[in-house]
Design brief:
Radius of gyration: 12 Å
Distance between the termini: 33 Å
Number of strands: 2
Order of helices and strands: HHHHEE
Oligomer: single chain
Strand content: 5-15%
Length: 77
């Protein structure tokens, strides 16, 4: 699944629109919608943050193991 499709799916399943997810992660209301409309690929920490807001976790799977990427809150200026 491509990144944009994954974000759309997480938003749909969580019942949250892109505006609500954007606000939940402390960004301007158009943040997630802009990612989707531009076909941008967010950094891993941003994707983990979006996933968490939708009730998901970002994970890397390979070599018989799973690594969960956790969102680490940081102070934004």
């Amino acid at each position: 699944m491509y990144t944009g499709d994954a974000i759309r799916h997480m938003c749909e399943v969580s019942g949250k629109g892109s505006t609500i997810v954007s606000k939940d992660i402390g960004r301007v209301s158009s943040f997630v919608g802009t990612i989707l409309s531009r076909g941008s690929v967010p950094k891993a920490d941003t994707l983990a943050e979006i996933a968490e807001a939708c009730g998901y976790q970002l994970a890397l799977i390979g070599h018989g193991e799973q690594i969960v990427i956790e969102y680490e809150p940081r102070i934004r200026d």
